[in-house]
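Page 42, continued from yesterday. The earlier attempt failed because a stray header line got pasted into the input along with the sequence. Redoing it now with the clean sequence only.
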Amino acid sequence: MTFSAVDSWWWPFLFILIAGWLATDAWRFLGVYLGGRLRDDAPVLVLVRTIATALVAAVIGNLIIFPSGELADTPLWLRLGAALIGFAAFLLTGQRMIVGIVVAEALLLFGIYSL
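This time it went through. Structure tokens are written below.
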């Protein structure tokens, strides 16, 4: 089966759904199976956690520095300022993630609609 094997409007959506499910869920099931047998401080899990954190940080940095869509029309100082103030709010409230996200989003939206 290929992406263009069936000439129906729904086929690309079904293909992406199945291919995405197969590509990710096998690793999830394997992680759950093996994760129950590893200690939380095992070197392999520390490495996996480090890589996952680095990937999330890279995606966030990419969205701030090289945005697309509506964010591309906002100045860099606004995106950086909202991220930094949101991070400060996260730290000041005892590392409550929702507070950091809400503060950063509110500042970004305020900046977008007031410019």
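Notes: The chain has a mean pLDDT of 90.
Reminder to self: strip header lines before submitting.
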